[in-house]
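Is inosine 5'-triphosphate placement plausible here? Inputs below.
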Amino acid sequence: MKVVLASGNRKKLAELQLILGHLAIELVPQTTFGIPEAVEDGLSFVENAIIKARHAARLTGLPAIADDSGLEVDALNGAPGIYSARYSVMHEYAPPGMDVDSANNALVLERMQGVEESGRTARFQCVIALMRYPEDPMPLICQGTWEGRILLQACGTNGFGYDPIFHVPSHNCASAQLPPEVKNSISHRALALQQLLARWPFTLQE
Ligand code: ITT
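Reply from A.M.:
I modeled the complex. Tokens:
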């Protein structure tokens, strides 16, 4: 059986495919079908995950999995949150020569200047939605949270997004300093996908 992975983010897709590799199904990225990105106009991770999965299921006629995720920083009242991918763009923060991920990280670090250690708590959130068909009235929703802190400066080159500024207490390093197999066993995405795997046989039965 084929299932569409409703994401256009290459690095996120790689993590999803690696963790879901155990499933005896064919996971096809939505880009293979030439599907345009969905308009993510929900106000929560759950809404956006459903919007993206429904969009891909509609356009392919196949079951679809979407991941909506982001960084929640307590000292910034939960920002960048659902706007994590476009945080710097929304704030028109674009230092010359910086890619969007680096600008996002630089903006969080700038806004966290002067915040002491105890106030630097943050977490990654991940919601995975599985829609069996476009009109699925009961999408399967799985969720994972990964607690950490915002570092004082970016470290490491692995992963993507905010990994260089996210301190992982269990390993005392930045998420971007973790080998991929370690991140993929403890991250917000790994936790959400573990739930998906545990509930999988029931959700796709006809
Ligand atoms: P799709 O919607 O196409 O899947 P996207 O990157 O736009 O790709 P989201 O809207 O879910 O996806 O935004 C997720 C953003 O949150 C992502 O671009 C990163 O900035 C951040 N993020 C999510 N998971 C992360 C992780 O594991 N490590 C670092 N940053 C992460």
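Short version: The longest strand covers residues 121-131.
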